[in-house]
Structure formats: structure tokens, C-alpha cells
Write a structure and sequence with these properties.
By secondary structure, this protein is mainly α. The protein folds into four domains: 1-75 and 233-315, Rossmann fold (3-Layer(aba) Sandwich), CATH 3.40.50; 82-232, HUPs (Rossmann fold), CATH 3.40.50.620; 319-368; 376-468, Arc Repressor Mutant, subunit A. It has helices at residues 22-36, 56-69, 84-97, 107-119, 186-196, 209-222, 252-257, 262-271, 284-290, 305-318, 321-334, 342-355, 362-368, 370-373, 382-387, 390-404, 410-423, 428-440, 448-455, 457-468; strands at residues 9-12, 41-46, 78-79, 100-103, 144-147, 154-159, 163-168, 176-178, 201-205, 228-232, 235-236, 301-302. The strands form five sheets. The chain has a three-stranded parallel β-sheet with strand order 1-2-3. Strands 4-5-8 form a three-stranded antiparallel β-sheet. Strand 2 (41-46), helix 2 and strand 3 (78-79) form a beta-alpha-beta unit. It is elongated. Residues 7-309 form the Glutamyl/glutaminyl-tRNA synthetase class Ib catalytic domain. Monomer. ATP binds at residue 245. GO terms for molecular function: ATP binding; glutamate-tRNA ligase activity; tRNA binding; zinc ion binding.
């Protein structure tokens, strides 16, 4: 007898009605980490049964968001709408098993039932008169297929995050699984798809917790294994209220356009509502190794932009230079900015070591790289203009002959600049301001030596001559 554990299979199943929400991104990430860390599969299903609201553009936006986050999926993207015949087949199989029945109640009859209950000031679940009707009495008319929900007792959801959740069966109605026009309902489609895809763990938002009770009845009705449930809390804004536009960006792609690196975003979203001891900064490989369902908290997580920026800064500093340049170029394209020239790319790579220190986002990194991206004559801000007074310009003018003879190593440059500062009775710090102004057009910039070494001897001397003129 084979007792080997089943391969872990998770899925992310968004509806293509808009962008990939930041909460959806975290749900996808949790599923991806759980599967990848266990050698399992991470599947992607687009729940596009709502034909009026589902759009190809929204599907494309969701895929772009997942790709930017670095979440790869196994196999083809599955369309729920394309599987509607299979959903209908299962509904009819439930009929044959006696776990569902044909309901001929019209919309008018159901509306009248609800209106009567409302008039009495009561809330009552619609109880179809066709539940136990003799098939011989069935009319030749359109019908919906309803499942036979248990009328008494309780349904227990054994949830890995929420614990045991008990729902009284008297609160669950005989829900429709196949409409009279032959289209399946969401509840049926989700269960059939998850079963057919071999999903072992359903990790999703806790707004689906009540749905789990209804879906569990379908699993039972078909005699299928119930997956492991894990309903994760939603993300709230910094004020503890449900996340909305007033809190800032809601779409995953917006965070790319704002200049956050994907590795930092993954780290932050993993840590948002999940913990592994006191670990804050970690790589994706570590997250895969550590991630489990027990580490997910029950309380809603709060978005914290300062923590996000802090983690992103650490990931920028730790990234390989070439990989960082590649992601920077993707950021420029996503945010509609001009691409780097071949020369700029080469210089960026050369100077990346100094650029990535203390930069928390790509716009901050680009601001530090201004000395690489500008061309002569360099425009200067107000502080830079002030730094280039008459005395400073004179010092820069006297420097250029010495720099022409320099070997252009950091040691040689340090010796020349330190000597020049001493000759004028100042420390190097005082000389650095006009040098920065000349080289970058700013008084805040990377190290003077880094800039000189990156842009080279000829460009450095030309910029100093421009500033001294």
C-alpha cells in the first residue's frame, strides 16, 4: 500500500474584473511560497464566469502583476468559463446521486416567499417545495439544480488559520448549483475546479470563510476529499480600517511604478500577517524554507509604508548589480520614462556599488545617479549655485592641471584633493560641496571619488572647467 504523502498543490484564483489588488498579491504569494517550499505545484485559475465584468485587459493586468512579483505558476492558466460543461456534468451527477434535486420554483414564487417573510419581520431561508417531490410530478419546464443541504446539525470547518469554525446547518440553504439556463454557479465551479486540478490546500482571504461551509457540502455530496482550508485575514490601512484608495496604492502594478523592488515587496508582503520568530529581512529562498500556515496570525495586518521602504532599501543594497540594473530598466519602462542609453547603462553598472547604498526606491537611486544621467552643461539647484562662489571656482580652476596628470585611482585622487584643501586652509569636507555641485549639480550626491572614478578623467575635468568658468 502506497502511503506517500500527496504532492502539495495550491492555486490562486482571481476574478478578472480589474487590477491585481495588493491583498490578492499577498494571497498569491502565500500560495506560491507554501507550494514552492514543499516541492509542490502552484496553479493559476482565472475565475471569468461573470462575462459582463470579466475583461481580457484585467486578466493581462493580473498576469503582469504576478510576473512583476516574481510568482511563476505551473502549467497553463486555466479559464473557469471554459470548463462550464464540466461543472454542469457534476451538477447532473449530484442529481443522480440524490444529493441534489430539480427545482421548478419560478423567480416570482421565490420573490413572493421573501416578500412574505419580510412583511412578517422574519428572515427565512427559501425552502423549495420540490426538494422531496416525486419525479413523476415534475413538469416539462426549465429547472435549476439545488443541492440538498442538511437541515439540522452543524458543519465544522477545520481551518489552519482560524481554528475550528462551526456553522449551524439551519443557516445554510439549498443553494443552486446549476441555473435554469444551464450555467453553473460560483460555488459549484470553484469546488469542481479545485477537485479536478488536484488542489490540496485552499489558502485565501477570510471573506471566503462562510463559502467554505457551502463548498464543503459539495465535496461531501460528491464523495471527494476536502482540501486543507486556510483563510487568511485581510489587509487594513495604517489606521486599522479596511484598505481603500485613501490609504494609497491598491494595485500591485502601482507599487512597481512607484519604484519598489520586487524582492523587497515579496519580503514585506510575506511578513504582512505572517511571522518566523523575529526575522524581518529575508530572501525568497529563506521565505520558501520557513513559510508555514501556523505562522499566519488571525488579526488583520496593517499596511506600513515606512517598513516597506526600509525593507526595500535593504534589498536594493543586497542585490547583485546587474540584476538591479535590469529591474531598474523595467521600472523606467513601467513608469513611462526614457530608457537608459548604452553608455548610461554601462556607467550605472560601474557605479552601482555606491548608488545602491541607502536608496530605498528606484526614484531615489536615480536621483543619486543624476551625475551619470545628466549631460553638460549641467543644470544646478540653488544649493549647488551657492556652493560655487568665487573662492570655490578658483580652487576648482587650480585643480584641473593636477587632475590631468593623475593616474585616476582613488588613492591618487584622495592625495590630490586633500592637498588642495590643505593649501587653502580647509578640510576636505568644505571642498567636497563645490566638487559635488560641479560634478552632479547638487550638494548631496554619492562620494566625490565614486563620481570621478565612474565618469572618468576627461568628463570630470570638463565638468570642473564648466563650473569654474
Amino acid at each position: 500500500m502506497n502511503t506517500a504523502p500527496k504532492q502539495v498543490v495550491t492555486r490562486f484564483a482571481p476574478s478578472p474584473t480589474g487590477y491585481l489588488h495588493i491583498g490578492g498579491g499577498r494571497t498569491a504569494l502565500f500560495n506560491w511560497l507554501f507550494a514552492r517550499g514543499r516541492g509542490g505545484k502552484f496553479l493559476l485559475r482565472i475565475e471569468d464566469t461573470d462575462r459582463e465584468r470579466s475583461t481580457p485587459e484585467a486578466t493581462a493586468a493580473i498576469l503582469r502583476g504576478l510576473e512583476w512579483l516574481g510568482l511563476d505558476w505551473d502549467g497553463d492558466v486555466i479559464s473557469q468559463f471554459a470548463r462550464r460543461d464540466r461543472h454542469a456534468e457534476v451538477a447532473h451527477e449530484m442529481l443522480a446521486r440524490g444529493t441534489a434535486y430539480k427545482c421548478f420554483a419560478t423567480k416570482e414564487e421565490i420573490d413572493a416567499f421573501r416578500a412574505e417573510a419580510e412583511a412578517k419581520g422574519t428572515y427565512a431561508l427559501f425552502q423549495s417545495p420540490w426538494r422531496d417531490a416525486d419525479p413523476a410530478t415534475h413538469p416539462d419546464a426549465p429547472y435549476a439544480i439545488r443541492m440538498k443541504a442538511p437541515r439540522d446539525g452543524e458543519t465544522v470547518i477545520d481551518d489552519q488559520v482560524q481554528g475550528k469554525v462551526t456553522i449551524k446547518n439551519e443557516t445554510l440553504d439549498d443553494m443552486i448549483v446549476l441555473r435554469s439556463d444551464g450555467t453553473p454557479t460560483y460555488m459549484l465551479a470553484v469546488v469542481v475546479d479545485d477537485h479536478d486540478m488536484g488542489v490540496t490546500h485552499v489558502i485565501r482571504g477570510d471573506d471566503h470563510l462562510v463559502n467554505a461551509a457551502r463548498q464543503q457540502m459539495i465535496y461531501d455530496a460528491m464523495g471527494w476529499d476536502i482540501p486543507v482550508w486556510a483563510h487568511i485575514p485581510l489587509i487594513h490601512g495604517p489606521d486599522g480600517k479596511k484598505l481603500s484608495k485613501r490609504h494609497g496604492a491598491l494595485g500591485v502594478e502601482e507599487y512597481q511604478v512607484m519604484g519598489y523592488p520586487a524582492a523587497g515587496m515579496r519580503n514585506y508582503l510575506t511578513r504582512l500577517g505572517w511571522a518566523h520568530g523575529d526575522a524581518e529581512f529575508f530572501t525568497s529562498a529563506q521565505a520558501m524554507e520557513w513559510f508555514d500556515l501556523k505562522g499566519i496570525g488571525r488579526a488583520p495586518a496593517r499596511l506600513d509604508f515606512k517598513k516597506l521602504e526600509n525593507l526595500c532599501g535593504q534589498h536594493i543594497a543586497a542585490a547583485e548589480d546587474a540584476a538591479l540594473l535590469h529591474e531598474l530598466e523595467a521600472f523606467l519602462a513601467a513608469s513611462g520614462q526614457s530608457a537608459l542609453t548604452q553608455t548610461q547603462s554601462a556607467l550605472m553598472l560601474k557605479g552601482m556599488g555606491g548608488l545602491k547604498e541607502r536608496a530605498k526606491t528606484f526614484p531615489e537611486l536615480l536621483e543619486k545617479a543624476r551625475y551619470i544621467l545628466v549631460s553638460r552643461p549641467i543644470s544646478r539647484d540653488e544649493a549647488a549655485e551657492k556652493a560655487l562662489d568665487t573662492v570655490s571656482r578658483g580652487i576648482l580652476k587650480s585643480l584641473t592641471p593636477r587632475l590631468r596628470d593623475a593616474s585616476w585611482t582613488k588613492n591618487d585622487l584622495e592625495a590630490i584633493l586633500t592637498a588642495a584643501a590643505a593649501e587653502h586652509g580647509m578640510g576636505f569636507g568644505k571642498l567636497a560641496a563645490p566638487l559635488r555641485a560641479a560634478l552632479a549639480g547638487r550638494t548631496v550626491s554619492p562620494s566625490v571619488y565614486d563620481m570621478m572614478l565612474v565618469i572618468g578623467q576627461d568628463e570630470t575635468i570638463a565638468r570642473l572647467e564648466d563650473a569654474a568658468a
